[in-house]
Amino acid sequence: MGxxxxxxxxxxxxxxxxxxxMAGMEDAAFPHLGESSQPPPRAxxxxxxxxxxxxxxxxxxDLRVFPDNITRATQHLSLQNNQLQELPYNELSRLSGLRTLxxxxxxxxxxxxxxxxxxxxxxxxxxxxxxxxxxVAPQFLPRSLRVADLAANQVMEIFPLTxxxxxxxxxxxxxxxxxxxAGLPPDAFRGSEAVTTLSLSNNRFSYLPPSLxxxxxxxxxxxxxxxxxxxxxxxxxxxxxxxxxxxxxLTDSGLDATTFSKLHSLEYLDxxxxxLTTVPAGLxxxxxxxxxxxxxxxxxxxxxxxxxxxxxYLLxxxxxLGxxxxxxxxxxPLRGLHTLHLYGNGLDRVPLALPRRLCALVLPHNHVxxxxxxxxxxxxxxxxxxxxxxxxxxxRVHHRAFRRLRTLRSLDLAxxxxxxxxxxxxxxxxxxxxxxxxxxMLEPEPLTGLDQLKELSLAHNRLRVGDIGPGxxxxxxxxxxxxxxxxxxxxxxxxxxxxxxxIPNILVSWS
Length: 511
Fold this sequence. Notes:
Blueprint: H1 3-15, E1 49-52, E2 55-57, E3 76-78, H2 89-93, E4 100-102, E5 126-128, E6 147-149, H3 160-163, E7 171-173, E8 197-199, E9 218-220, E10 242-244, E11 268-270, E12 289-291, H4 302-305, E13 313-315, E14 339-341, E15 360-362, E16 384-386, E17 410-412, E18 431-433, E19 455-457, E20 479-483, E21 486-489, E22 507-510
Parallel strand pairs: 2-3, 3-4, 4-5, 5-6, 6-7, 7-8, 8-9, 9-10, 10-11, 11-12, 12-13, 13-14, 14-15, 15-16, 16-17, 17-18, 18-19
Antiparallel strand pairs: 1-2, 19-22, 20-21, 20-22
Protein name: Podocan like 1
Pfam family, one: LRR_8
Keywords: Leucine-rich repeat, Repeat, Signal
């Protein structure tokens, strides 16, 4: 065969179709016709979003059935704000790698949540089932759990393994349910000694539940029916820092000298809105904030406060102290007290011998009629003094009443019966409130030296243009007068009276 014939044969071999490929001989690495070299898209339930391979977000889609097509790789599943009424066991059991399950704000009932629903979720750490229709808690939650939120349901019963035997459990939220003491078994938290936050507020407890975790740092029991804290109920909670017992039915007989004495880390105690007539005994030294407002306290005894020497804030508003309920020196043990609230107690004078380091004294809506030369002398460090809505008259406010208050920044005398500005005001004042008095004149002398004043409130007095003396604003520098949409800047050294000061709602402040 000659050379041209050889070339022709080779060309025919190249042009003729080869044998059909046999099964199993395809090159898997080579894309076939109509296929992309990119990996196939991840499975994601319709209308949901899957921002990561381990995350499925079906929030707020008005779903009525549990979505299918959820990949087994899912670790974080959000189904909140839907219309789900039940969780199918067969769908949930496939998701054994789930770490976060958010079912907040659905219609799930206890009947729609099978007992074995969470058995296969051995890695679950966070479960949120708040705002559903559960009447009992799940009988079993995984041992791996860290956070459980069952708030705002209708839960009446907890089981031993709902929260028990969970060594990693840190936070449990059960507020806004219908739990009573009968619905919380004594061993509800056995084997779960890492719980730091427990919220049981807005339930139906009649006494503080015993056998709570010793690891607690925050305990919320407000808005219950608690009339008693059983002896020893808080003896193990030595790490507790915040205790909320407001809006209950506690009386003096429901507490004893040991109730709080073992709480060596306690910093915040709220006992407001109860029925106490005395300050509780046995308060710990670590306590910084004590809220006793809206009780029936008639007497404050120094002996009851000796243990709480670290107290910084004492709130006693709306009690029944009257003229004799806070005797001189009663608060002397509280050497570091920063703020004292005595709003609405029927006091007829400023309490004597207050702690020297007091920074804020809040006394509005009492019956204080006199302010002598020495009544505030014991508290030279005051920065805020509120005597609004008392019975003070100009004749009974001594001209040296504020002389020693050199650090005072805010003075509220609103709602009294003053007819002229008090004399001897501290030169460091930033705020002076005198609205709703009977002021008939403004003179320059009481305002002399108040060059740091930022706000002067004079609304609802009896001032007219002719009642403001020349030079009144001289020391106050560029104060701004505002009334509704009207504004007027007073010149830095204006000797003339302010033409807008007849307006009944007047606020003078820095420009």
